[in-house]
Amino acid sequence: MDKPTLPKGTRDFGPAQMAKRQFIFASIRSIFQKFGFLPLETPAMENLSTLTGKYGEEGDQLLFKILNSGDFLKDVPADKLVARDSRSITFDIAEKGLRYDLTVPFARYVVMNRHEITFPFKRYQIQPVWRADRPQKGRYREFYQCDADVVGTDSLFCEVEIILMIREAFAALGITDYSIKINHRGVLGGLADLAGAGDQQTSLFVAIDKLDKIGEEKVKEELVARGFSPNSLTPVFQLLNAQGTTADKLALLDGTFSQSAAGQKGIAELRQMLDLLRAYGASEDHVEFDVALARGLSYYTGCIFEVKIHNVAIGSVCGGGRYDNLTAVFDGKEKSSGVGISFGIDRIYDAMEELQLFPARTQISTKVLIAHFDAASHSYGLGVLRALREAGIASEIYPDESKLKKQLEYADRKLIPYTIVIGPDEVRTGQLTLKVMGTGEQQALPITDIIHRVRA
Amino acid sequence: MDKPTLPKGTRDFGPAQMAKRQFIFASIRSIFQKFGFLPLETPAMENLSTLTGKYGEEGDQLLFKILNSGDFLKDVPADKLVARDSRSITFDIAEKGLRYDLTVPFARYVVMNRHEITFPFKRYQIQPVWRADRPQKGRYREFYQCDADVVGTDSLFCEVEIILMIREAFAALGITDYSIKINHRGVLGGLADLAGAGDQQTSLFVAIDKLDKIGEEKVKEELVARGFSPNSLTPVFQLLNAQGTTADKLALLDGTFSQSAAGQKGIAELRQMLDLLRAYGASEDHVEFDVALARGLSYYTGCIFEVKIHNVAIGSVCGGGRYDNLTAVFDGKEKSSGVGISFGIDRIYDAMEELQLFPARTQISTKVLIAHFDAASHSYGLGVLRALREAGIASEIYPDESKLKKQLEYADRKLIPYTIVIGPDEVRTGQLTLKVMGTGEQQALPITDIIHRVRA
């Protein structure tokens, strides 16, 4: 039989990785809860009709589709089969697909439960998503998203809370060197007005977004090739290159955007966010107003966010923004404005590994191993084990009668910090040998003292 | 646009359900960890070659298969397409499938990581699995399994620890009225020897397993129809109907199984388990030796377990047993004997709902809502919010300027226990109105006292 393998782009998480991942999940979850967000989980599978058309044509290609059960070919038109038209047959033989992100399932949930939900609805969701992308460093076919969204309110304090949550999360994770880049669709609209972009807005934003990758000259060339006049681009790049504090940049924009309603709205909202941050009593630390930040997703309508960790070659680790109408993709009737953030757990993990930020204590492990010399001490050890567990101490007994060396190796490899060694003397006296695995220190103690010591 | 729906047999878990589910998960996880089990997670998708042939022919039919990406029909032989042979085409157009249980992925992980794993390997795994079963009450197409296994040891203390973990888990969940049914494949082998079953062993076990559903007469009829002689069945049913303690039943079997090597092995191992339970200092509470317990899965070779909660019409909520060789399905070379247990979270959830066992405290919620009268008190409230959060209190401010009634309704519906109401007076004096939502009690207090009160 061939040795089994994993599907491309997927991973197992063994105990050591799980401990680190659980540390990240628990840190972020507790911050979401502290800010009043409540948990939601949706199924891995959604109807394809729920998923398709929501992520652009490329996204539709990247959806994992689930083959219908039973005789799935029965009703496929013969001409399609003969033509081997894979793309059009897909929807005849697959009704369901795997979740591609957490936003569309969330929107579906809101539409289906609109009348039971208390708005403003603050929900968080931590689940894997699947994309049939070409796997590469930092890009997997199964990865976790970790989202928090508020829907049903226009309050800009929700944007401020996103900044606060990111900072608390990163503080909890020990990440100190990073930027929370913010921008506003209105500011981008102002740039478009300035450049006379007309219906070429998207081209302008896509080009601008590449500024820090390919540089100003290349971006200009691209835009001129698309019909932008070099003259109209001059004031745009003056703004893109603006330095200084957020307030400085906003003042500069204010002068330039006097004719742009979109630009004025963006400036006003960003100023209001700074005011709210101040009223809360918080600093602007890590916040970087980046006029060039565009983000691909066209459904953002207000503020947009992106977080980069410095000194690691990993793309953005969080992204989000304000949208006018979450549920528009399903149902245009009732507007549900909201704002959300998504933490890219797998990238945060990779960055923390690279920067060696995981605390040693993330290793989940047994606290005490009971090792034994013979059948009698093994049996005696069972009572010791019960006493430890009754005291709430994670503990185990080596299950087989093996050489002591092998038992101690087991403790070492499992990173168990304490071993209790029991032989005939210990059984007779009740004075057990406690061995501290890190230092090799040994001490004879009764079980009550060991419990006291290990708990401390 | 049509209102979106959920795929058949799948569910969303909103905040209230999530809180209860997290209570179950956290309770069981902490017990697994206390017993020295370490976490593992495997991908939702496995290669179909990993999954097929492991669950019998019916299981293969119930696997969800994932359609290959791109032009999946390109290399399908034309004759298969013309013949519309769905079953044989499946493997041409689908290379991957969704996890059907946690045992096969665990076995695959052990085979792939044999040289890095520290044996005996105690792992737990809590993840969803998917089966294309016909949905019905208590049976879903996506549901969680919650497994703990030890591989790489024959020690019967591992079986004992399964009993201990089940009891601790149920105690933590508040489930008091249940039975842990145990039996041993050897005991079943003894019955087969007694009945002269020969190669009809499986028929015998399948029939016996139905004893409490269809009754003794029907089981006998079925067996006689399959060629068992009524005479040979008489002593079998004497044993199946045996009453008394585990020790009583074992004594009875001992006399009857004198000629059965399998039977003797089963008796010896069950006796040893009782001895180990005693050495640990634990009772036999909830343990019920059930000679008729067979369980379907043929890979069990030693002790088998099943847990039933009394007074609910829900099948078994846990099952497990000892297997000789976990990795035999992949690689016969190195034997890996082990024993495992699987908690059926969804059924436990349903049973706890029916028995009203969820404690009120499972509701995850914000502790304090800040409500406000106007823009000035809203702004003042932001500083109050920061103070609460800095004290570690989950809290939120109503984000919009709305009528107080609406803000209080929000707190009510979200089960937030405290509201701080801030108006012009409160802003002026710093004496904030704390409202206890359950009782309606109101008190004017400075923020430091409120923090003290809410924390208590």
What secondary-structure arrangement, pairings included, does this model have?
Two copies of one chain form a homodimer.
Chain A: H1 15-34, E1 38-39, E2 45-47, H2 48-51, H3 56-62, E3 65-67, H4 78-83, H5 86-93, E4 94-98, H6 103-112, E5 121-130, E6 142-151, H7 157-173, E7 178-184, H8 185-195, H9 201-209, H10 211-225, H11 230-240, H12 246-256, H13 261-280, E8 287-289, E9 300-309, E10 318-323, E11 338-344, H14 345-354, E12 368-372, H15 375-390, E13 395-397, H16 404-413, E14 418-422, H17 424-429, E15 432-436, E16 442-445, H18 447-455
Parallel strand pairs in A: 1-5, 7-8, 12-13, 12-14
Antiparallel strand pairs in A: 2-4, 3-4, 5-6, 6-11, 7-9, 9-10, 10-11, 14-15, 15-16
Could you characterize the architecture of this molecule?
Chain A has 456 residues and is α+β, with helices and mostly antiparallel strands. Chain A folds into two domains: 15-355, Bira Bifunctional Protein, Domain 2 (BirA Bifunctional Protein, domain 2, 2-Layer Sandwich); 364-455, Rossmann fold. Chain A contains 18 helices and 16 strands. In chain A, the strands form three sheets. Chain A has an eight-stranded mixed beta sheet with strand order 1-5-6-11-10-9-7-8. The longest helix of chain A has 20 residues, at 15-34. The model of chain A has no long low-confidence stretch (mean pLDDT 93). Chains A and B meet through α1, β1, β2, β3 and α5 of A and α1, β1, β2, β3 and α5 of B.
